[in-house]
Design the sequence.
């Protein structure tokens, strides 16, 4: 019997402290899972208790191995990538096997446990597909929704199921596990890094007990909806279909976020156990911001809808990534903005001029040129297409710019999702279509040190008075206590970058105040 | 018998012979040189006392490089050691060093043991406190969080003492649309420095401007507990009557004052958030923008045309 074989294999892992990094072990588990897929659901349901137990044991082993994969600031090795892909596929196969057993579990004691295993594996598979940057199988959400409906039909929605959650054992009901799968499916649509996905999962696993699934829209408005008769994911805003809709009520979310924040004030990282507490605090803060934005979107009287997109085929655009590349690229594109020294770089070197100027100019010349396909365009965003393996260094949170006939459209990468097996689609939220590269001169401190030039990108705000304007600088260049000079024509503005409005990977968008203005002598 | 076996047997025999000849006892115990020698004898070259300084103390000592190492055969010319009554005097007290703090616990690689997590364990953890009662690890987490959550505004807990600057940061956050973060920043100041009345009042004003009655009432209660004699309490109550008119806390206060007396950047506001009345900077910012944007075509871009 395959279930017995599987249990034996997993028991070997437990006792022998075997790791899933071993290809041999992965092969054995994959072979057993493949054989389970061939067993009819009724037969699997007859061993339902063992199957559900083995599912939780498998999650234990997987969680044990995810630390080395996720708490790793280095680029993934091929072995790492292989393990992540395997985990995504294995959890999906588990979900499918448990779902077929759950379908045939009517009248059995193991029905609730099998439904729980299905929903746990559906959530895990969502997470691992996001971690491995793989597209989720279309059937995954459909299996989870079907499991919920089976639970409702069998009347086991209030039966407690014991499940594993990264080092802790929790008891949850089927709607809680379904809520976790739904929220993970919503949050892992390419907006979070792999560490942030794990943090979100750790939080939601603990919080899911406080969420409710309702057939009617709640009065509070802090809710999302899903059509459980289809394989759709969670959606915000008004219900657009007349199907079998459930509302996921998230009234507890603001209180839960406050608990996380107060925990940090007291020097504790929520939830206090598991892999996620070992990640950088910045990753936690990014998840906090993401969930706060979700709350704001849900509370808004007129939720922001996705602007209509127009597909563009065959167009290629030049893309610049990072403040330095954007500033240099803009100068190259526009001769009027070109760095004055770039024309005579070699002369600078030969003359023994300041090394920094020479290096700056050389970097401009050796600027990496990036060309990407234009997938779609909307009012406030663009979709870029890159072949698989290309542009691996561009990720969520990067600052990118696209040259648009003399003007510079600057935005932030908000999504990176696989586009089939051929490449990736990089979603860019455009902040402005009229950015300007500027060069700031940092004023020396009282000790005469710290004076230097640095690149920045001016992002005009929507407000014409300049209150919402921002200057984007690299993280290393930012100093809130420093003073900078910005020379425009014959006028020099002395400014201070006095707050950070937004930050991404290596860049900060700073609000600024003008402290002084001087007229330069002609 | 293999050659390696013979070599090992010979080595063992040599070690045994060496032991029985009494050389193992010549290893000088690890003691400070000061406590082992009489004055004047330690500096004598070639003396046995000087060999002690080469033991594994981890410290470099000024000894003659020609002295014999401990455990080697003593030269025949060496002088016998006079027993020193202070040789085993207690070592100097260990300096009071800070305890080492590990980055994170070493992950256990043993068999998996499932421990049932207490449900809703997060609830008692919600009690927040100031940094003074935290251990080193918790304090470090708090500091890292402050720097990550409020980049540019805070680098450490010590920055919370600069109340004026923090109030300005909070006002700017609020003006940029981050009211909850501005409130969190001022909450931190109130936790760390509850005696700072200005932070409480700025927090109250931001809650008022954010039209958040629940938060305003909670803050007003906390402010009253912390500063019951505050001269600003009537003003707090006046704003409270506006934002939460039915609340008994504000109704109790005498309402005989004129609500229209106050001036500030916003009508009838006390300006506890220290908004700047001087608009020179804003005018200059507007000029900077117009100079930078001069000549830039703000219209339909080619990509929008494509769309």
Sequence:
């Amino acid at each position: 019997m395959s279930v017995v074989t599987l249990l034996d294999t997993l028991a070997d892992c437990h006792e022998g402290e075997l790791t899933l990094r071993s290809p041999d072990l992965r092969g054995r588990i994959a072979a057993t899972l493949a054989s389970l897929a061939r067993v009819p659901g009724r037969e699997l349901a007859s061993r339902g208790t063992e199957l559900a137990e083995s599912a939780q044991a498998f999650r234990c082993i997987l969680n044990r191995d995810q630390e080395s994969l996720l708490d790793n600031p280095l680029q993934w090795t091929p072995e790492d990538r292989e393990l992540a892909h395997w985990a995504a596929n294995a959890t999906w196969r588990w979900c499918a096997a448990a779902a077929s057993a759950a379908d045939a579990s009517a009248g059995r004691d193991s029905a609730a446990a099998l439904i729980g295993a299905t929903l746990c594996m559906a959530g895990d598979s969502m997470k691992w597909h996001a971690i491995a940057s793989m597209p989720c199988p279309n059937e995954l959400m459909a299996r989870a929704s079907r499991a919920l409906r089976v639970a409702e039909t069998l009347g086991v929605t209030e039966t407690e199921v014991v499940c594993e959650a990264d080092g802790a054992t929790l008891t949850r009901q089927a709607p809680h596990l379904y809520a976790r799968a739904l929220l993970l499916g919503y949050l892992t649509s390419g907006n979070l890094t792999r560490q942030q996905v794990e943090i979100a999962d750790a939080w939601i696993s603990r919080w899911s007990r406080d969420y409710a699934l309702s057939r009617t829209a709640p009065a509070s408005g802090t809710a999302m909806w899903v059509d459980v008769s289809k394989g759709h994911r969670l959606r915000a805003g008004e219900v657009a279909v007349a199907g079998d809709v459930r509302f996921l009520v998230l009234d507890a979310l603001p209180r839960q976020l406050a608990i996380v924040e107060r925990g940090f004030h007291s020097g504790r990282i929520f939830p206090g156990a598991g892999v996620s507490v070992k990640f950088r605090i910045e990753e936690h803060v990014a998840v906090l911001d993401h969930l706060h934005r979700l709350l704001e979107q849900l509370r808004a009287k007129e939720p922001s809808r996705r602007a209509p997109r127009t597909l563009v085929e065959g167009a290629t655009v030049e893309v610049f990534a990072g403040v330095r590349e954007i500033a240099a690229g803009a100068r190259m594109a526009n001769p009027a903005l070109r760095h004055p020294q770039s024309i005579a770089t070699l002369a600078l070197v030969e003359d023994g001029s300041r090394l920094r100027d020479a290096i700056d100019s050389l970097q401009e010349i050796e600027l990496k040129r990036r060309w990407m396909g234009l997938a779609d365009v909307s009012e406030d965003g663009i979709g870029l297409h890159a072949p698989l393996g290309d542009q691996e260094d561009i990720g969520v949170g990067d600052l990118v710019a696209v040259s648009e006939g003399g003007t510079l459209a600057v935005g932030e990468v908000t999504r990176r999702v696989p586009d089939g097996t051929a490449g990736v689609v990089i979603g860019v939220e455009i902040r402005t279509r009229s950015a300007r590269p500027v060069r700031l001169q940092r004023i020396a401190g009282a000790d005469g040190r710290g004076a230097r030039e640095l690149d920045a990108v001016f992002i005009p705000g929507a407000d014409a008075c300049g209150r919402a304007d921002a200057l984007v600088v690299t993280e290393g260049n930012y100093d809130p206590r420093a003073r900078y000079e910005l020379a425009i024509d014959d006028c020099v503005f002395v400014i201070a970058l006095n707050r950070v409005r937004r930050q991404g990977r290596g860049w900060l968008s700073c609000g600024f105040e003008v402290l002084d203005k001087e007229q330069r002598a002609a | 018998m293999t050659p390696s076996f013979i070599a090992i047997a010979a080595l063992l025999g040599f070690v045994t012979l060496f032991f029985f000849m009494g050389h193992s006892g010549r290893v000088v115990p690890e003691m400070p040189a000061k406590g082992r020698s009489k004055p004047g004898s330690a500096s004598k070259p070639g003396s046995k006392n000087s060999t002690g300084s080469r033991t594994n103390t981890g410290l470099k000592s000024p000894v003659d490089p020609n002295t014999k190492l401990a455990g080697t055969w003593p030269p025949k010319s060496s002088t016998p050691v006079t027993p020193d009554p202070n040789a085993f005097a207690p070592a100097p007290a260990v300096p009071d060093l800070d305890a080492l703090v590990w980055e994170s616990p070493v992950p256990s690689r043993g068999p998996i043991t499932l421990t049932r997590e207490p449900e809703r364990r997060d609830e008692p953890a919600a009690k927040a406190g100031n940094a003074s009662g935290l251990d080193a690890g918790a304090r470090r987490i708090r500091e890292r969080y402050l720097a990550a959550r409020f980049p540019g505004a805070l680098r450490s807990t010590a920055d919370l003492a600069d109340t004026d600057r923090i109030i300005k940061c909070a006002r700017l956050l609020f003006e940029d649309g981050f009211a909850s973060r501005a409130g969190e920043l001022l909450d931190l100041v109130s936790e760390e420095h509850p005696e700072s009345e200005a932070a409480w009042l700025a927090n109250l004003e931001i809650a008022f401007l954010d039209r958040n009655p629940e938060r305003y009432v909670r803050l007003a209660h906390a402010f009253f507990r912390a500063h019951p004699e505050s001269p600003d309490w009537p003003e707090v109550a006046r704003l409270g009557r506006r934002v939460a008119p039915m609340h008994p806390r504000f109704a109790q206060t005498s309402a005989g004052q004129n609500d229209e007396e106050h001036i500030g950047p916003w009508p009838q506001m006390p300006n506890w958030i220290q908004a700047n009345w001087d608009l020179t900077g804003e005018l200059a910012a507007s000029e900077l923008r117009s100079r930078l944007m001069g000549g830039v075509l703000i219209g339909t871009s080619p990509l929008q045309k494509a769309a």
Remarks:
- The first helix of chain A runs from residue 2 to 16.
- The two ends of chain A are 90 Å apart (CA to CA).
- Residues 333 and 516 of chain A are 31 Å apart (CA to CA).
- Residues 337-355 of chain A have pLDDT under 50 and may be disordered.
